[in-house]
Amino acid sequence: MEPVIGLAVGGGTGPELATVFERALGRIADVYSVEIGITRSERVYHSYSSLKADAGIEQIRELTREDADHYAEFCRAQAALGVPAIFRTAINAQSLYLVRRRLQAVKVDAITAPNASLLLVRDEAQGFYTGDNTHIPGALIRTMSFSREITEKVIAFAVRRARQQWPDGEIDEIVMAYKFHLLDGALDEWVAESAARHGVEIRLSQPDTVNRNLIERGPRPRTVIIAGNEWADIMHVVLLDRFGAERQENRCTENVYLHFEVAGLVEYQTVHGSADDLEGKDTVNPVATVRAAAMIAERHAGCAGAVRLVEGGLETLRRRGIGTPDLGGRHSTTDVVDALLDVLEPEGQRILVTEP
User: Fold this and answer.
1) End-to-end CA distance of the chain, in Å?
2) Which stretches are transmembrane (predicted)?
């Protein structure tokens, strides 16, 4: 049976990047002589800019909820059908975090420094980002929560993924970057219990302490950082730049859902946002989307070596000076994708695209 991959598209440059994804996944499928199905959500989800363009506060609240409800149900439906992965372009963050809270998401990114490997596990399921808003005259009240259950799930995932990352079991350091001083000692207790349960040492640190240590000495050779969104959302791009020698525009990452209804479903996304200012200009950088297609093909569609194949193609483009304006190039999105697909292996079977 052919593998099927989900596709969810947001506003801004989302439709353009969805086309890039389909083309890249299709060519990889050709190279490996396999068929890969794509099931696309029928709703185009809002970006923040698209919401602000046509809606007032009350309508924004309504559309945000509608997008969140629809996307959460799309994820549940795909998981029930056995779909292992979804590629999603950027959507409005408020809708996205409502889904991440409901489906208990973590974001994971392995960042390789010259002398170290840093595994960043971002807790997307609790905290300020996942809160609910209450409007009263002249004010907005945002209510959020932390829980023992979610904290344990996030730590358990991080330890499990670290042991997959380093199969010999050697982990030099596990750090948690949270504003725990604001939580009455509760997070300290939950973390200590979880560390004992998993047989590891975990250092709970204030975000500024984590930053100071990274600046002074960098990560230890095998470091896991588990972090709340309040720190990780800001620092992810900084860690990529400082330790991974990578721009966010070129980077994709994965979100793993931990709720039992969708357990194991993996969502891939670009690190960059919806880039609404580039909509319709054919200049959005396609590299992160192409890399996501390669990762999905290799991990979920049996195309062993697809990441290496695509990285080789991207290196060929770099040597030829082919790139979008954000990378100092003069080429359009379409030009870059055409050039990349041309340097990959010859076509085989065509991709199958199915509608839900």
Assistant:
1) 17
2) none
The DSSP bridge pattern shows strands 352-354 and 173-177 to be unpaired
| Closest to 40 (Cα-Cα) out of 18, 15, 8, 72 | 8
Fold observed for domain 106-236: Isopropylmalate Dehydrogenase (3.40.718)
Structural domain boundaries of the chain?
1-104+259-356, 106-236
pLDDT in tens, 279-311: 899 999 999 999 999 999 999 999 999 999 999
Query: What CA–CA distance (Å, rounded) separates 152 from 97?
Result: 19
Rounded Cα distance between 205 and 68, Å, is 32
Please choose, from the candidates 268, 263, 300, the residue with its C-alpha nearest in 3D space to the C-alpha of residue 4.
300
C-alpha span between 256 and 266 (Å, rounded): 5
Q: Which residues contact 110 (CB under 8 A, 6 or more apart)?
A: 117, 118, 119, 120, 165
pLDDT tens digits, one per residue of 9-31: 999 999 999 999 999 999 999 99
With a threshold of 0.85, does the pTM exceed it? yes
Task: Give the separation between CA 246 and CA 313, rounded to whole angstroms.
Answer: 17
3-state helix, strand, coil in the chain (%, to 5): 50, 20, 30
Using alpha carbons, select from 198, 215, 124, 130 the residue that is nearest to residue 162.
Answer: 198
Any bridge partners for residue 113, and if so which?
116
φ/ψ region of 85 (left if φ > 0, alpha if ψ in -120 to 50, else beta) reads beta
Determine the Cα–Cα distance for residues 127 and 105; give it in Å rounded to an integer: 12
CATH no. of 1-104+259-356: 3.40.50
Close Cβ partners of 21 (under 8 Å, ≥ 6 residues apart): 7, 87, 289, 290, 292, 293
